[in-house]
Specification:
heterodimer, A: six-stranded antiparallel beta sheet, 1 helix, globular, B: six-stranded antiparallel beta sheet, six-stranded antiparallel beta sheet
């Protein structure tokens, strides 16, 4: 807890953890979410088996999220600049991921390869945890839809997401596309995903996987090469987003044009 | 009941002082998913420069809104609402930051959906009953209403007005006639705002809606009573609305509020919406 502004200033001065990062540009379709997980430098690796990534996993934005002694780590500030026209960056905790799913004719039956996802070790109730279909290879141009079968935040298994487009222009035909699956009505989160199914083949493999993630912070960048700053307090600040110990931080990006641009930024946190 | 007092109070409550006093809600709505209400099919493109409703766009949390049917007062647990946690008894939820991104330029309005009905007929020129009872903002102050089109109306333009009770409890008030029907005013999920009579600034109840003439297609429309909470201009994909350092300041969101999005699109492309809401409880 930070009881007052004076204490906040003390923490800014005394207990900041700062990390810098950069990501090369990737091609996108405007208005659609993409994952920067595989973007260099410090690229992650497409998962094969189901696993729980953490702060030590290659691709995590920083390894410095471990906390000891019952303290709480909170987001303080970020500065991000991108060479693209405008980008919304969403800082997320990557909670569980797997690979080995496909969107070709083999995928139109229920796929359970490397599923269910590994049980959550952070946000274990599943409240506020979302599931995305992350593309590690390019899907075909035929329009298909996919669903996840999942266990919701109440522990109810067999829930199904709404059929969502996969394949076809803008829906997996470029690398790194990240399609967030809409949960069934009245569900507030996901504990695990047990199965994925496509309605028809997209015409290409479309190597992909399920990623469970917790969105933490929106950082809009409005103009190319013009840094955007968000602090914890004012100016649409983060309100001290709590970072769980060993969080595996990564970015989703939604672009206004057709690339993320080259990204350079800094994140800072503090314990209390 | 108390409002936030100063920056230290915000810091304290935003970091857990006084219990579980903050929450962040991440939401998204995707109009390209082919399911809504009791029908199926693709959600049509919005009309540039006109208001549309995202009530039936699917997303998380809470899926998609449905065609309301009989008049009802939706809540945060109604399918389609951007649900959130109510404050504990004796406290209020204060919205301190609202961030939205859209795939296309627009103005988005976060609102509390107070009352809605569908099933009204685009060919019926009689007074079509609305009725129902508000359960939030019952004094009516700041409430607005619109006609919401759930099934395309006819291509013949006419006007619509509604009979309502204003914020002072005066019944029999009539909205200023607004165009409905014809291109740009008859499409599915279009919103037709119904301006209140001169001097009125709220709605306690809506008795009926009346078309001046038939649009020549029954379609399906309804009346929605809403309480706007925050408006965000999205000129370049994303925008935050800080309610701590800018006016109108922290804004109360009532317990059980049925939060939803209406938007004024600048293009004819369907918007893919993401957002986050930051609440402090006091």
């Amino acid at each position: 807890m930070i009881p007052n502004y004076r204490k906040y200033l003390e923490q800014v001065k005394n207990s900041q953890r700062t990390t810098s990062f950069t990501k090369s540009s990737t091609t996108t379709q405007a208005g659609r979410p993409y994952s920067l997980w595989l973007q260099t430098p410090n690229a992650g690796v497409a998962p094969t088996t189901a696993a729980v990534p953490d702060n030590t996993t290659a691709g995590a934005l920083t390894s410095n999220t471990a906390i000891t002694g019952g303290k709480i780590l909170r987001f303080l500030n970020t500065d991000i600049v991108s060479s693209a026209t405008a980008v919304l960056f969403i800082l997320c905790d990557r909670l569980s991921h797997q690979g080995g799913l496909v969107c070709n004719s083999s995928g139109i039956i229920g796929q359970q390869t490397n599923l269910p996802t590994t049980p959550l070790t952070r946000y274990t109730t599943g409240v506020g945890v979302y599931a995305g279909l992350e593309f590690y290879g390019v899907a075909g141009g035929a329009t298909s839809t996919f669903i996840f079968k999942y266990t919701n935040e109440k522990g109810v298994a067999g829930r199904m997401t709404y059929p969502t487009q996969a394949g076809g222009s803008g829906f997996g035909t470029t690398n790194y596309r990240f399609i967030i699956a809409p949960l069934f009505q009245n569900d507030q989160g996901v504990r695990s995903v047990e199965e994925m199914q496509c309605s028809i083949s997209t015409g290409d493999t479309g190597s992909c996987g399920v990623t469970l993630f917790k969105p933490l912070l929106f950082v809009p960048v409005f103009a190319p090469n013009f840094p955007s700053s968000i602090d914890a307090v004012l100016g649409a600040g983060s309100r001290f987003v709590q970072i769980q110990s060993t969080a595996c931080l990564f970015w989703l990006a939604i672009t206004y044009s057709t690339s993320t641009g080259t990204v350079l930024g800094r994140l800072s946190f503090a314990e209390d | 009941m108390a409002s936030l007092t100063d920056l230290s109070d915000v810091l304290n409550r935003g970091t857990g002082g006084g219990g579980d006093t903050w929450q962040r809600v991440f939401w998204h709505r995707d109009p390209r998913i082919k399911r809504y209400g009791t029908t199926s099919g693709t959600i049509p493109s919005p009309v540039a420069g006109q208001w549309s409703s995202a009530w039936c766009h699917i997303g998380s949390p809470n899926g998609s809104g449905s065609l309301p049917g009989a008049v009802s007062a939706p809540t945060s647990s109604t399918s389609g609402a951007i649900s959130f946690r109510n404050p504990i008894a004796g406290r209020q939820n204060w919205l301190v930051c609202c961030k939205i991104t859209s795939s296309h330029d627009m103005v988005a309005v976060l609102y509390d959906r107070l009352l809605h009905i569908s099933g009204l007929d685009g060919t019926n020129t009689g007074a079509q009953t609305v009725g129902g009872t508000l359960t939030r903002y019952t004094d009516g102050v700041g409430n607005i209403m619109w006609a919401e089109i759930y099934g395309p109306l006819g291509s013949t333009g006419t006007t619509i007005s509604a009979s309502y009770t204003n914020q002072a409890g005066a019944s029999g008030q009539t909205t200023i006639a607004a165009t409905i029907g014809s291109t740009g005013f008859n499409e599915q999920f279009r919103i037709i705002n119904l301006p209140l009579a001169a001097g009125d600034f709220g709605i306690q109840a809506v008795a009926s809606a009346t078309l001046a003439a038939s649009t020549l297609t029954a379609g399906n429309f309804g009346i929605t009573v809403a309480h706007p909470i925050s408006a965000i201009s999205l000129p370049a994909n994303a925008a935050p609305r800080d309610l701590l350092s800018t006016l109108p300041g922290p804004t109360e969101v009532k317990s059980d509020a049925c939060l939803a999005i209406a938007y004024l699109s600048h293009s004819t492309s369907l918007p893919y919406l993401f957002g986050s809401l930051h609440f402090l409880e006091k």
